[in-house]
Amino acid sequence: MITHLNIKGLAIIENLEIDFSSGFNVITGETGAGKSILILALHFLTGSKVSSDVVRSGGETASVAGEFLVRSNHPSVAALRELGIEVELEGTDAIILIRRQLSSKGRSQAWINDVAVSSLSLKEIGMGLIDIFAQHENQRLMNPQEHIRYLDQFSSSPKELREVHTQYHSCEAIITEMDAIINRVASSQRDRDYLTYRLEELKKFHPTIKDYQTIGALCESADKVSAEREILSEAVAYLETGDSNSVSSLLWALSKTLGKLGEPNEKIRARAESVAAELEDLHFTLTQRLAAFDVDESSLEEASGRQFGYQELFRKHNVKTVDELVEAFHSLEEGLGALESAKEKITDGINRLIVAVAELEKASKKLTDVRKKTAAILKKKVETEIHELSMVGARFDFEWVKIDRNITELSLSGVDSKLHVAYEKIANTLKCMGPSGAEKVHFLLSSNPGEPTLPLVKSASGGELSRIMLAIKKTLAADAETCVLVFDEIDTGISGSVADVVGRKMRELAAHFQVICISHLPQVAVYADTHCLVRKQGKKNRTETEIIRLSIEDSAKEIARLLSGRDVSPSSLAHAKNLMAQART
Which residue intervals of 206-265 are DSSP H helices? Predict the structure, then answer.
């Protein structure tokens, strides 16, 4: 149950605090007093998104805080512990404190037991604590797409629905995989000749990272060798101006001539002879170095040619490095290889799909069987409830509608005709199944004996819809883990004795759950264990909403006002007290 609620800065609420009791809590008040803001606050507290427009004018933040008391073995306690949030125990009960804040700029924050949590975690916890039935639920009841959800909610075997969901998505995954293969093949097939030519060109050239590095090093080395050889050749040329006129020959001739001068000039002759010998040695050394620079011209030419070939391939394949070129080579090999193995993959996919669809059919049949058994039970329970809600003789039933949907079409041209036929059979089966089974369910109603059952949208009045929803809600709540049931003006469109029955049904629910009901009917309010009044007040030129927990005497006066209007007469007060007394017998 929710024991305490505090609202600050939300819409026309400045600061509001309310203590709820276990059992049946009824909240009444004038239209526009702010009752709907309480519903908004509970939605916000349990994780729903709200606009920053709800922050009170002139304020920076709005906040809502609630204190819940649940059984220590309630699923929400285990869920909080999984999130690493400690839960304080009070005897056999656990205390859960939730606080949420919204800034005027739209940023929200949430805490559970003073630990910050995400909006998703808050919503998961909140769904297990409060079930809010607002007026828009009647719209959902009028939407046939929602009816299957109500039926599955009542089912005691949700595992069948989970199994269908799992098997359906297995089939979808296989079809998606096959579709991707077929599209890839179709795209590759269109360019097959071109891609084959590109691949053959690469195979013939056979690019590798090692080869590219080797020829690069060779060409770079050859450039250096060529430059050095040219310099050495030029140096040797200086020493070789002709056999008879080389520098060393001239120096040897000079030495011989100087030898004719005799002993006094021997030193000059020796110097000429020494220089001539040194030049001959230098010439020998240079020619030896030059001989060592001999290069295999054919190898160098081949390396240069491959280097040019690499650059051409870079350009053709729009890559910049040899790594990318090698990757393109492998991709072409894999792509064209995939064309060869595509038929095998498609065949394998269809065979796997045949098995998956068979599993889906089996799971869907089990789910259908469970739903039909559940529908028979739900029909009886809802009819019992609506009969007690003054719809005597009314009949509630179900219309079962087979699913017929579109599925992904696969282009299987070129595939073995037997597989083509197999897929068409699979497709026809899948058209009749979805992630939620093989059928839709529409609620039918006959309000009066002898009349045919018709879809709710055609046969139910507003008051009847409210009663049917209460009947469904009461039936679904039987085994629910939810702690708090909140009803926002579920009594719309009803009055008199029917309203009295609705009040009694609410009190019956309150024997198993805490019930909070916003109502405008005195016949409902008389059944309250706790009666609260919402009213607006003008303070400092601003409108504020406040909520008051009424004493038994004040509750009688409020019920009398609901019965007679603004003025509470002695007779209306006596009538109110009489109704309250009858409600407690």
Answer: 209-239, 247-258
Tokens of 252: 């040897």
State the Cα–Cα distance between residues 270 and 282, nearest whole angstrom: 18
pLDDT single digits (tens) 500-535: 888 888 888 888 889 998 888 899 999 999 999 988
**E strands of 428-507, at which residues?**
439-446, 454-455, 484-488
pLDDT of residue 122: 92
Name the packing angle between helices 209-239 and 247-258 (round to 10°): 30
In Å, how far are 250, 292, 415 from 236, measured between CA atoms?
16, 14, 77
462-471 core/surface letters (b: 16 or more CB in 10 A; e: else):
ebbbbbbbbb
List beta partners, residue 15: 8
Mean of pLDDT over the chain: 82
Would you kindly state where each structural domain of the chain is located, as residue ranges?
A: 1-135+479-546, 551-585
SS3 assignment for 524-570? HHCCCCEEEEEEEEEECCEEEEEEEECCHHHHHHHHHHHHHCCCCCH
The whole-model pTM stands at 0.62
pLDDT at 36: 80
CATH 2.10.70.10 applies to domain 1-135+479-546? no
